[in-house]
Specification:
mainly alpha, 2 domains, 8 helices, binds zinc ion, two-stranded antiparallel sheet, elongated
Length: about 250
């Protein structure tokens, strides 16, 4: 492509999400594709808000369950009279630990209902499998959220033990928020997932890589209507995807 043609292409370039164009648009990468800075910012914020609201609600519920289980077990321990044994503290700590661990496992499963967690549903976000574009199940949800749930648990222990929790929490939150600006956070890479905006699910940054159903060949560079590797016919729907992403060749997805 000559320089002139590149300039022409840049001139006609518009944000695939909001269709903004022109020299004043600042371009940022979302899942490896150029989108305008505002769209990327909006997406990252929606994800942060969804997570934060869910996490705060989760902690509130966890504390209630914790409280309840301690009250219940205290009255039970009193009734059996453990005397000077001192085992009560151990039992209560063990119960707290079990509630904490089980609670966080359940939290990590939150995106596993076809890719929707409650707040994601409200904000029009969905977690999909990078390859298939289908909403994820419990296993992938656990994979992508296990890390953040674990960090959350450490922060909670920090609150209890050291009053360090709020500081830890801010650092952790900042790290995760910084990562997901570009699209994938660490948990997404482990689980092979991405978060899409349902409003723009048919647009470029959210589309899956078009691959051949039969041999798995990456079809982004193809201009034919059959797979160059195995000759399988490419569906019309897939050809539309290829059309959209072929202008973005070299973008890592
Ligand atoms: Zn935009
Ligand atoms: Zn093929």
């Amino acid at each position: 492509m000559s320089n002139d043609r590149i300039v022409m292409a840049e001139k006609g370039k518009c944000c695939p999400l909001c269709k903004r164009s022109g020299a004043r648009v600042e371009w940022k990468k979302l899942y490896g594709f150029d989108v305008c800075k505002i769209c990327r910012w909006n997406t990252a914020w929606a994800r942060c808000v969804a997570f934060s609201v869910e996490w705060i609600a989760f902690v509130a519920i966890l504390m209630m369950v914790q409280q309840k289980s301690i009250v219940l077990s205290e009255s039970y321990l009193e009734s059996i009279d453990m005397g000077a044994f001192g085992g009560e503290v151990v039992v209560l700590l063990a119960i707290s630990a079990v509630v904490l661990i089980v609670g966080h496992i359940l939290f990590a499963l939150k995106d596993g209902f076809e890719g929707y967690s409650p707040m994601k549903k409200v904000l029009g976000l969905r977690v999909v499998d990078v390859k298939t574009g289908q909403g994820i199940g419990l296993m992938q949800s656990f994979k992508r959220n296990f890390g953040v749930a674990f960090i959350g648990a450490i922060c909670l222990l920090g609150v209890v033990c050291l009053m360090l929790g709020p500081v830890l929490l801010l650092i952790a939150w900042g790290m995760v928020a910084g990562q997901l600006r570009g699209g994938f956070r660490l948990g997404d890479k482990w689980a092979g997932t991405k978060v899409v905006s349902m409003k723009h699910v048919d647009r470029v940054p959210y589309l899956g890589v078009p691959i051949c159903d039969v041999c798995g060949y990456d079809l982004r560079a193809t201009s034919r209507d059959e797979c160059p590797e195995c000759g399988e016919a490419i569906s019309e729907q897939k050809q539309k995807v290829i059309e959209q992403v072929s202008g973005e060749m070299g973008a890592e997805i």
